[in-house]
């Protein structure tokens, strides 16, 4: 009996947060979008994986936008305007984020050159 009451309570708690019921194709699209959007409360989790209240609200928002027929890019852009580029799990490459994309390659090249120079020096010595 306790298990049944607990199951009913959990279903009642999650049902209002689910957002509109979507056809299977739209739900799959919404879930793909939710995997691309970062939870602003959790560190490094998508809103699909997070149980934070804000993630629940963001999932509801994504489902509502998909139900209204918005394109994926429009939904992403609306969230970027609201929360900034940090909301995307894979930020776009633009002038603002270019140093973040280029720096690892430069460090790798610098480290490789330093390693080669050290190895050559040891061979000669």
Written account of the structure:
Helices cover 64% and strands 0% of the residues. The protein is mainly α and 125 residues long. The longest helix has 27 residues. The radius of gyration is 22 Å and the shape is elongated. The relative contact order is 0.10. The model has no long low-confidence stretch (mean pLDDT 85).
Question: Quick recap of the structure?
Answer:
By secondary structure, the protein is mainly α. 64% of the residues lie in helices and 0% in strands.
How are helices and strands ordered from N to C? HHHHH
Largest sheet: none
Percent in helix: 55-70%
Q: Approximately how much beta-strand content do the residues carry?
A: under 5%
Termini gap: 80 Å
- Structural category is mainly alpha
Number of helices: 5
Which residues form runs of ≥5 with pLDDT under 50? Answer: none
Radius of gyration: 22 Å
- Average pLDDT level: 85
How many β-strand stretches?
0
Q: Tell the overall outline.
A: elongated
Blueprint of the fold:
Layout: H1 2-14, H2 24-36, H3 53-67, H4 72-83, H5 98-124
Which short descriptors sum up this protein?
mainly alpha; 5 helices; 0% strand; 125 residues
